[in-house]
Amino acid sequence: TERSLVLVKPDGFQRGLTGEVLRRIEAKGYTLAALAVVTPTREQLAAHYAEHEGKPFYEPLVDFMSSGPVAAVVIEGQDCIRGFRSLAGATNPTEAAPGSIRGDLGRDWGQAVQQNIVHGSDSPESAVREIGIWFPDL
Ligand code: ATP
């Protein structure tokens, strides 16, 4: 079955939303294959966000993502990559549909970086790459 890398970002972790995110993942029927609380290093984030390097939001994004602990989670289940992105909702939490994690729990906090609670891998190739970054022993 398919695996995806989910991060509860520093805003979600700090707000105590990790349990709510995990609850939605499990309620959907996906299982947890790995779970860790880590404060990301800039090296990890440079690897994770390599595709965004050079974009105007890249440095603020790395600053934000390294600002505190995140919950890193490997989820498992049929089509869980697309399925979790559907659970997460649109990138911009102001526009994300009600019923989604970002739509129900997020908004635009007026920060330089969108604090949108969660990350989810966007393709099978990204999932394999990202799981290798956050869980090298898995
Ligand atoms: P994620 O990869 O976190 O699940 P996504 O795939 O919806 O989100 P990407 O386009 O991959 O979004 O961007 C990665 C992250 O960079 C976003 O989740 C958001 O935190 C931040 N980001 C993306 N676009 C912008 C932007 N225009 N301004 C500020 N931050 C942005």
Task: Report on the architecture of this protein.
The protein has 7 helices and 4 strands. By secondary structure, it is α+β, with helices and mostly antiparallel strands. It has a single domain, classed as Alpha-Beta Plaits. The chain is globular. The mean pLDDT is 97. The structure holds adenosine-5'-triphosphate (ATP). Adenosine-5'-triphosphate binds next to strand 4. It is an enzyme of class 2 (transferase).
- Please work out how many helical segments DSSP would assign: 7
Low-confidence parts = none
CATH homologous superfamily (4th level) name:
Nucleoside diphosphate kinase-like domain
Proportion of residues in extended strands:
15-25%
Count of distinct strands: 4
User: What's the structural domain tally?
Assistant: 1
> What sequence of helices (H) and strands (E) makes up the elements?
EHHEHHEHHEH
Structural class: alpha+beta
Strand order in the largest sheet:
2-3-1-4
Instruction: Name the ligand types.
Output: adenosine-5'-triphosphate
Shape: globular
Rg for CA atoms = 14 Å
CATH architecture heading: 2-Layer Sandwich
What is the first-to-last residue Cα distance? 15 Å
**Biggest beta sheet attributes:** 4 strands, antiparallel
- Under CATH at level 1, the class stands as Alpha Beta
Mean pLDDT score, rounded? 97
CATH topology: Alpha-Beta Plaits
Main location: cytoplasm
Subunit structure: Homotetramer.
Catalytic activity: a 2'-deoxyribonucleoside 5'-diphosphate + ATP = a 2'-deoxyribonucleoside 5'-triphosphate + ADP; a ribonucleoside 5'-diphosphate + ATP = a ribonucleoside 5'-triphosphate + ADP
Binding site for ATP: 9, 57, 85, 91, 102, 116
